[in-house]
Design goal:
238 residues; alpha+beta; 3 domains; 4-stranded antiparallel beta sheet; 3-stranded antiparallel beta sheet; 7 helices; globular; binds zinc ion
Length: 238
């Protein structure tokens, strides 16, 4: 994915800021395409939405993602047609659904644990522009009927029975860094939505986040501590 470091938007020429909603793609077009300089670039969402080539560019990005989706051993395909692509990674260090829309060339990452709430109504707030609300609104009935739950996604994608995290099992720094990202997300989830403690089973927001500043291959790792029972745990335990 293209990196954002305060460069100007290629569509309007104005420098982008952290507050701007931004649209970005990975590198997916070669120099033979008239739009290749917009591939692997970051732009204002609002500029992208009204760009004359947006529909064609978005469609090409969607088709590229669809073509890649069959070749990723971590992410399984739960649904793929010419309007929407749904992939999922049940690894406890990831635990996310990716929904990609042909109508906009943009996508959403939703924690598997939030999938049902997202389908129910949260999707509306996660849209960054009216064109996303339209494109997503058009495929929601299909998603709700074919993939109503996180379990349905995992079963449809053929990803059942993954008890141990493949990323954690592979070990090394990748596992360590993945743990840190996942633990950060778990800590945010614990204070906003609450989680069930793997020690005492109590569902609450009452946790302390013990964060390790220096990630290393064998040193301590970040974790949460339940203020009810004192249990220390991480993303692989919930
Ligand atoms: Zn712009
Ligand atoms: Zn507890």
């Amino acid at each position: 994915m293209a990196l954002f470091y305060g460069q100007p938007c290629p569509l309007c020429g104005v420098k982008m800021t952290d507050d701007d909603r931004r649209f970005a793609t990975s590198h997916f077009l070669g120099p033979e395409s008239d739009l290749w300089r917009f591939s692997d670039a970051v732009m204002h969402w609002d500029c992208y939405a009204t760009w004359e080539h947006r529909a064609r560019f978005g469609r090409m990005y969607f088709e590229a993602k669809r073509a890649w989706s069959g070749h990723n051993s971590y992410w399984g395909v739960a649904h793929s047609d010419d309007q929407v692509l749904v992939t999922a990674n049940p690894d406890k260090l990831v635990g996310e659904v990716d929904v990609m829309l042909a109508g906009t060339g943009s996508g959403f990452r939703i924690p598997l644990a939030d999938w049902e709430e997202w389908l129910e109504g949260e999707w509306f707030e996660t849209c960054r522009h009216e064109i996303e609300r339209e494109a997503l609104g058009a495929v929601l009935p299909l998603l709700r009927s074919k993939l109503p739950t996180a379990d349905a996604i995992i079963a449809t994608a053929g990803l059942e029975g993954q008890d141990e995290s493949p990323i954690a099992a592979a070990g090394g720094m990748v596992a360590r860094v993945s743990h840190e990202f996942a633990c950060q997300k778990l800590a945010e989830r614990a204070v906003t939505k609450g989680v069930a403690c793997p020690g005492c089973s109590r569902f609450s927001t009452d946790y302390e986040f013990v964060r390790v500043e220096q990630v290393s291959e064998s040193g301590p790792q970040s974790h949460l501590v339940c203020r009810g029972c004192g249990k220390e745990f991480g993303p692989a335990d919930v």
